[in-house]
TrEMBL record:
Gene3D superfamilies: 3.40.50.2300, Methylesterase CheB, C-terminal domain (3.40.50.180). The lineage of its organism: Bacteria, Pseudomonadati, Pseudomonadota, Alphaproteobacteria, Hyphomicrobiales. This is Protein-glutamate methylesterase/protein-glutamine glutaminase. GO terms for cellular component: cytoplasm. Belongs to the CheB family. PANTHER family: PROTEIN-GLUTAMATE METHYLESTERASE/PROTEIN-GLUTAMINE GLUTAMINASE, PROTEIN-GLUTAMATE METHYLESTERASE_PROTEIN-GLUTAMINE GLUTAMINASE.
């Protein structure tokens, strides 16, 4: 049975481009188009699509307002389509927190092929459970108590993809202000990761920034791989620090989780802890196995709490995962595990 998709965008040109991209995949059926949220609301009722692609900025009611309404009244699988601007990226990150499953950037002269990933994203989220009517909200950092914590010197490396915005917020909300140095690769388009890091920084106690080349890895700091053009790796020469490389995509991704995990295994070995979270595909599975073989502790998100149980499943099936945990227990487990005893 075909996956039924509704396209919502105020630009007829953009609707046509999305539709043409999706119609090249026999598993996907474009059942309708809507130019604004008012048309979209009726179309969702009439057509009952499996997945909706939603523009962030539209007339009559912006995409965020519309998303909040449909997630409250009729939870729907939504993929956000956004311009690669600071405003568009910020709105998209908010949409992913509200309940959108994933995002894709609109094509630009610099990156005209951004829609190539859209069919795979749609097929991945079509089989996922419908979102909850009310998304989980992370408690602001100032309202959480900080347990006594002394980092044991280990480096934490986390990989995530589809569903990772909410998952990472859930994990990092458990981290104390002086958390272990933490590096993250989240599959996300260029520009979006800066907004994502800023959002995490506001919501969590540690300092969260987009990684820059040469940045030393320090306790109390979380470093998010920049999206799109480089891989984030860890280099041990002269002390652990971030290194951004311009190598080719790995597993179809740049940044790649495998690249990060492999570098952490080499740089830190048993003095590291690796985590694979929700996401489609298998990026990170082999790298996490390398970390485990180097003596690192490894954790995988379980199927029941994964928005898309793709990457965690691939890692589990090849023996990369030492311990499988539900999302709400992963952050606390990391803190307990990396807390220096005595």
């Amino acid at each position: 049975m075909s996956i039924r998709v509704l396209i919502v965008d105020d630009s007829a040109t953009m609707r046509g481009l999305i539709a043409a991209t999706l119609r090249r995949d026999a598993a996907i059926q474009v059942v309708g188009e809507a130019a604004d949220p008012l048309q979209a609301r009726q179309a969702i009722k009439d057509l009952d699509p499996d997945v909706v692609t939603l523009d962030v900025e539209m007339p009559n009611m912006n995409g965020l307002e519309f998303l909040e309404k449909i997630m409250r009244l009729r939870p729907t699988r939504v993929i956000m389509v956004s311009t690669m601007t600071d405003k568009g990226a910020s709105a998209t990150i908010k949409a992913l927190e509200i309940g959108a499953f994933d995002c894709v950037a609109k094509p630009s002269p610099k990156d005209p092929r951004t829609f190539e990933a859209l069919p795979a994203k749609i097929k991945a989220v079509a089989s996922a459970p419908l979102p909850r009517g009310e998304p989980a909200r992370a408690q602001p950092a100032a309202q959480r108590a900080t347990p006594a914590f002394k980092p044991d010197g280990r480096l934490v490396a986390i990989g995530a993809s589809t569903g990772g915005v909410e998952a990472l917020l859930t994990v990092l909300s458990e981290f104390p202000e002086n958390c272990p140095p933490t590096v993250i690769t989240q599959h996300m388009p260029p520009v979006f990761t800066a907004s994502f890091a800023a959002r995490l920084d506001r919501m969590c106690k540690p300092r969260v920034t987009e990684a820059v080349d040469g940045a030393p890895l320090r306790p109390g700091h979380v470093y998010v791989a920049p999206g799109g053009h480089t891989h984030l790796t860890v280099d041990k020469s002269g002390g652990l620090h971030c290194r951004l490389t311009t190598a080719d995509a790995v597993n179809g991704h740049r940044p790649s989780i495998d690249v990060l995990f492999n570098s952490v295994a080499e740089a830190a070995g048993k003095r590291s802890l690796g985590v694979i979270l929700t996401g489609m595909g298998r990026d990170g599975a082999e790298g996490l196995l390398t970390m485990r073989r180097s003596g690192a502790e490894t954790i995988g998100q379980d199927e029941g709490t994964s928005l898309v149980y793709g990457m965690p499943r691939a890692a589990y099936e090849i023996g990369s995962v030492g311990k499988q945990l539900p999302l709400h227990r992963i952050g606390a487990h990391i803190v307990i595990s990396t807390n220096q005893q005595g």
